[in-house]
């Protein structure tokens, strides 16, 4: 029984990581339809932000908390720059956007290698997050996983509130649903796009901060997570936050259960098969926007 | 009732513009054949020639991508999967042939995890199974995946991401199965290729000629497909899938053909890569190599016949030349190629030629 | 020739009833105009008949039930349509467009070969839609009206028995409208035609029968004169329409 509960907790915490790395994408890919392969490098930038801050501020606890807003700003700024320089010119060509941003991701990875060195680097976790919470003798939940779970929950709630209750959120939804109509209604669509991209990329930075608690920081850490993140958004359905949330936790749980009974490598293949099978059933993802358009 | 009687046309059978466009690759193919079979073997050292064989294998993958992506709009970011399936099928056969009848491949004895040959290795002992499998196995996998996703109208970016995820999954799977697939090291240290000693430079030249001939054969197949009615239909599906459906076609089948053919081409490329280069491993088939196959196609001109081949060879050559001395510079350059070519010259070098011609009086 | 028979057709989008229990009979060889204010459900009705959206009820063309079949099968049963914005394959020539439209029944073998001659149906259609001179021009370079005609030409070579045209004369000049109307007359000799149209002059000139849709339901049906005289129609639609005209 405790085995199942502890596997479920592992699954939920894998899901929380998936959710954090996919949340920004569910905004830029899910809402705007932009396939940004450099999203993984924004995550990397968030992680290196923690590394740099720890060089300046020695207290691990404070540096992590301070890193959260700074990583958000750093990754967000990179996103805005990318949107302004390249993506904005490619809105009508989604597949080309994918390839162009892949090129950007290569450049950013190499830049990280040149600045921080090719080997992975480590950061110190705050003391408060190194311990465990003991529920029963067999069931032990680690603090850093709980922290990530909380952070993911907070990010979802904050993003939902912004989209639903602020004028920026209303503008984002208006542009998503009907760009031309939004433009003639006086909404500056270009600026809304840039702000959406800022928030989505910023969330990648936050995810990067969280990932420093789980493993080393390296130039290829973005590539390792980007496909999973995209699969979450694809299976969740375009334009729906809740789809991404449900799919992230479902995939996390599935992966942890399969890993428990087989191996990590088999789990990867089975999760892929599960997603293809799922798309047979719901080709547009878990939730769909119904429209009358021809496509 | 649809009339099937077709009358010959007296006026120009094909528009002059069109005839010109079609004549280009015909001449190009002939020139290419002369270069590959007459010039290169004389001009290049054994070492350079075997490098060229490697580039031509990558170019074979590019021919398939040009068909599926350039003509059919299917951005397949998982060609490494089919390249790998073909490569591993060939490598397994060569390992078993090296080991001799009834013996296990050396690396299995080395890792010592297995008492007997796994059942799925056994058929590859026979060349009559292994050789067709290098092409048919990738085509079968492409058929299964393609018929699932195309029928459910998974397309565009969704398809690209799924195909990429497949490449990631296969690479991770192979790494995890070290005892039976060689894991990260892959399969390497081959001695013979159907009885010919691979250490002998003469036999390496023979491998080069097989690769060059295969590439030409694939180009002829691609040329016929592009010029046929199917080729026109494929472009129609790329530009307006929904409209094609209202004309009574099932676009899923049209796309499936291009995808399966491209997979077979990648499989053959992988199979020949193994004797030409001497190794196949997960690092050659994952996400990164899969997307690198695409950049050569983009550089050369995705919608043309010869563009992908020229682009793939040029990029592979630049990579070898630059990455030895300046690895960092090469990564920047590769990134810049993706950005500049795809964003600002989507037609590739082929369109640059047209642009230049248009400017000159 | 076959006619179209629709019974209790219903389509809803997330609870909004776009088509709400429509019964419709179109006789073989008829030219039926579907009119109605925006949002009346005209295009959705055509979408349902051609399999683009899910619907309940029944749609018979001849003896065959159309509902529940995939789009390309319905097309092969002889039902063809055009779209509000002309959709032709812009990067193919006029000839290639027509050749593809004519080829849904081709064998894989003939698909894999080059086109060596122009099929008779294609050259006839080129004459009918008056685009013979533009045969080798890319469809994307045609004028707006010519694209509309090319679309109709594609339906002709596709050999459909039921044509569903969504605003075929929108954006056309007066002469082009008359030519299109004449084309409808030729086409309807051995086919059934349904036209969605907002242009009242065009309707008065070329409609044989008219159905008025309003809020997803049939409001009125009959000849042009009967429909125009219907007070319900004048109230919701034609009242404004005739004032404009």
**What Rg of chain B do the Cα atoms give?**
21 Å
Poorly predicted ranges of chain A (pLDDT <50, ≥5 residues)?
A: 290-295
**Average of the residue pLDDT scores of chain A:** 85
Number of helices of chain B: 15
Number of helices of chain A: 11
What topology emerges from the helices and strands here?
The complex is a heterotrimer of chains A (295), B (361) and C (245).
Chain A: H1 2-28, H2 39-56, H3 60-85, H4 94-116, E1 132-134, E2 140-142, H5 143-165, H6 167-177, H7 179-184, H8 189-211, H9 221-236, H10 241-261, H11 264-281
Antiparallel strand pairs in A: 1-2
Chain B: E1 6-7, H1 16-43, H2 46-71, H3 79-99, H4 106-111, H5 127-151, H6 157-176, H7 178-181, E2 187-188, E3 192-193, E4 196-197, H8 201-227, H9 229-239, H10 241-246, H11 251-277, E5 279-280, H12 287-300, H13 307-325, H14 327-344, H15 348-359
Antiparallel strand pairs in B: 2-5, 3-4
Chain C: E1 4-13, E2 16-26, E3 31-35, H1 42-49, E4 56-61, E5 64-65, H2 71-76, E6 79-81, H3 94-101, H4 108-111, E7 118-119, H5 120-128, H6 144-157, E8 162-166, H7 174-187, E9 192-196, H8 200-206, E10 209-214, E11 217-222, H9 224-229, H10 231-244
Parallel strand pairs in C: 3-9, 3-10, 6-8, 8-9
Antiparallel strand pairs in C: 1-2, 1-4, 4-5, 10-11
Question: How is this structure best described in words?
Answer:
The complex is a heterotrimer of chains A (295), B (361) and C (245). Chain A has 295 residues and is mainly alpha-helical. Chain A is 72% helix and 2% strand. In chain A, helix 3 runs antiparallel to helix 8 (189-211), helix 6 (167-177) packs across helix 8 (189-211) and helix 10 packs across helix 11. The radius of gyration of chain A is 19 Å and the shape is globular. The N and C termini of chain A lie far apart (48 Å). In chain A, 49% of the residues are buried. Chain B is mainly alpha-helical and 361 residues long. Chain B has one domain (29-359). Helix content of chain B is 73%, strand content 3%. Mean pLDDT of chain B is 87; it is low at 1-22. With 245 residues, chain C is of the alpha/beta class. Chain C has a single domain (4-244), classed as Rossmann fold (3-Layer(aba) Sandwich), CATH 3.40.50.300. Chain C has helices spanning 42-49, 71-76, 94-101, 108-111, 120-128, 144-157, 174-187, 200-206, 224-229, 231-244, and strands at 4-13, 16-26, 31-35, 56-61, 64-65, 79-81, 118-119, 162-166, 192-196, 209-214, 217-222. In chain C, the strands form 2 sheets. In chain C, strands 6-8-9-3-10-11 form a 6-stranded mixed beta sheet, sandwiched between helices. A 4-stranded antiparallel beta sheet of chain C has the order 2-1-4-5, covered by helices on one side. The two termini of chain C are 35 Å apart. Classes of the chains: A mainly alpha (295), B mainly alpha (361), C alpha/beta (245). Chains in contact: A-B, A-C, B-C. Chain A binds chain C through residues 290, 292, 294, and chain C through 13-14, 43-44, 47, 52, 83, 87. Strand 1 (6-7) of chain B pairs antiparallel with strand 7 of chain C.
């Amino acid at each position: 029984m405790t085995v199942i509960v502890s596997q479920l907790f592992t699954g939920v915490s894998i899901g929380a990581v998936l959710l954090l790395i996919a949340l920004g994408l569910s905004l830029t890919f899910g809402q705007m339809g932009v396939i940004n392969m450099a999203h993984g490098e924004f995550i990397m930038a968030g992680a290196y932000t923690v590394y740099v801050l720890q060089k300046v501020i020695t207290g691990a606890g404070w540096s992590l908390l301070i890193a959260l807003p700074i990583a958000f700003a750093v990754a967000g700024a990179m996103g805005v720059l990318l949107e302004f320089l390249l993506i904005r010119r490619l809105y009508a060509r989604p597949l080309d956007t994918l390839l162009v941003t892949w090129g950007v991701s290569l450049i950013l990875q190499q830049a990280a290698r040149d600045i921080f060195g090719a080997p992975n680097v480590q950061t110190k976790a705050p003391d408060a997050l190194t311990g465990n919470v003991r529920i029963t003798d067999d069931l032990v939940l680690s603090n850093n996983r709980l922290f990530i779970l909380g952070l993911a929950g907070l990010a979802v709630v904050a993003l939902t509130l912004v989209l639903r209750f602020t004028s920026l959120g209303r503008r984002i939804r208006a542009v998503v649903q009907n760009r031309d109509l939004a433009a003639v209604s006086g909404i500056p669509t270009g600026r809304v796009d840039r702000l959406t991209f800022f928030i989505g990329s910023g969330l990648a930075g936050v995810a990067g901060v969280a990932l420093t608690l789980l493993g080393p920081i390296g130039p290829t850490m973005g590539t390792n997570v980007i496909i999973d993140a995209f699969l979450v958004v694809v299976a969740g359905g375009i334009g729906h936050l809740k789809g991404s949330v449900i799919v992230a936790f479902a995939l996390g749980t599935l992966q942890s259960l399969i890993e428990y009974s087989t191996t990590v490598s088999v789990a990867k293949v089975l999760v892929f098969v599960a997603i293809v099978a799922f798309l047979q059933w719901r080709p547009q993802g878990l939730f769909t926007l119904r429209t009358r358009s021809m496509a | 009732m649809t009339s099937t009687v077709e009358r010959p046309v007296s006026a120009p059978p094909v528009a002059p513009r069109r005839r010109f466009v079609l004549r280009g690759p015909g001449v190009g193919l002939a020139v290419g054949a002369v270069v590959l079979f007459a010039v290169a073997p004389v001009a290049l050292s054994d070492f350079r020639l075997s490098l060229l064989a490697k580039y031509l294998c990558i170019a074979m993958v590019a021919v398939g991508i040009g068909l599926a992506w350039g003509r059919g709009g299917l951005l397949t970011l998982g060609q490494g999967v089919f390249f790998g399936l073909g490569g591993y099928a060939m490598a397994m056969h060569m390992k078993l042939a090296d080991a001799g009848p009834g013996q296990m491949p050396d690396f299995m004895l080395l890792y010592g995890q297995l008492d007997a040959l796994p059942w799925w290795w056994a058929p590859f002992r026979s060349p009559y199974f292994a050789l067709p499998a290098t092409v048919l196995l990738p085509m079968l996998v492409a058929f299964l995946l393609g018929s699932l996703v195309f029928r459910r109208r998974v397309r565009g970016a969704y398809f690209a991401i799924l195909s990429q995820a497949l490449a990631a999954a296969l690479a991770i799977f192979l790494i995890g199965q070290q005892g039976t697939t060689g894991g990260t090291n892959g399969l390497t240290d081959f001695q013979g290729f159907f009885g010919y000693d691979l250490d002998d430079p003469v036999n390496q030249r023979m491998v080069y000629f097989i690769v060059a001939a295969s590439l030409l054969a694939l180009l002829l197949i691609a040329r016929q497909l592009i010029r046929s009615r199917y080729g026109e239909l494929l472009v129609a599906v790329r530009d307006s899938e929904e409209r094609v459906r209202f004309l009574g076609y099932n676009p899923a089948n049209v796309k499936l053909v291009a995808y399966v053919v491209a997979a077979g081409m990648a499989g053959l490329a992988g199979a020949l890569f193994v004797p030409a280069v001497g190794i196949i491993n997960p690092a050659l088939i994952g996400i990164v190599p899969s997307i690198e196959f695409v950049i050569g196609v983009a550089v050369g001109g995705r919608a043309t016949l010869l563009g992908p081949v020229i682009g793939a060879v040029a990029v592979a050559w630049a990579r070898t030349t630059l990455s030895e001395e300046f690895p960092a510079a090469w990564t920047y350059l590769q990134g810049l190629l993706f950005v500049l070519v795809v964003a600002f010259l989507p037609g590739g070098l082929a369109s640059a030629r047209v642009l230049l011609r248009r400017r000159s009086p | 020739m076959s006619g179209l028979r629709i019974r209790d057709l219903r389509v809803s989008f997330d609870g909004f009833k776009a088509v709400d229990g429509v019964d419709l009979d179109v006789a073989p060889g008829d030219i039926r105009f579907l009119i109605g204010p925006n949002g009346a459900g005209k295009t959705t009705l055509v979408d349902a008949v051609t399999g683009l959206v899910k619907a309940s009820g029944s749609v018979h063309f001849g003896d065959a039930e159309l509902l529940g079949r995939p789009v390309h099968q319905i097309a092969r049963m002889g039902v063809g349509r055009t779209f509000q914005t002309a959709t032709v394959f812009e990067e193919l020539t006029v000839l290639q467009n027509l050749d593809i439209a004519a080829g849904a029944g081709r064998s894989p073998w003939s698909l894999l070969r080059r086109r060596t001659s122009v099929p008779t149906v294609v050259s006839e259609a080129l004459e009918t839609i008056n685009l013979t001179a533009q045969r080798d021009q890319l469809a994307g370079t045609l004028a707006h009206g010519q694209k509309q005609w090319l679309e109709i030409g594609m339906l002709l070579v596709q050999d459909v028995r039921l044509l569903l045209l969504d605003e075929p004369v929108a954006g056309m000049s007066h002469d082009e409208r008359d030519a299109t109307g004449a084309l409808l007359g030729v086409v309807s000799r051995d086919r059934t035609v349904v036209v969605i149209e907002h242009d009242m002059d065009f309707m008065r000139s070329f409609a044989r029968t008219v159905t008025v849709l309003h809020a997803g339901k049939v409001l009125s049906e009959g000849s042009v004169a009967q429909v125009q005289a219907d007070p319900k129609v004048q109230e919701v639609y034609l009242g404004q329409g005739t004032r404009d005209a």
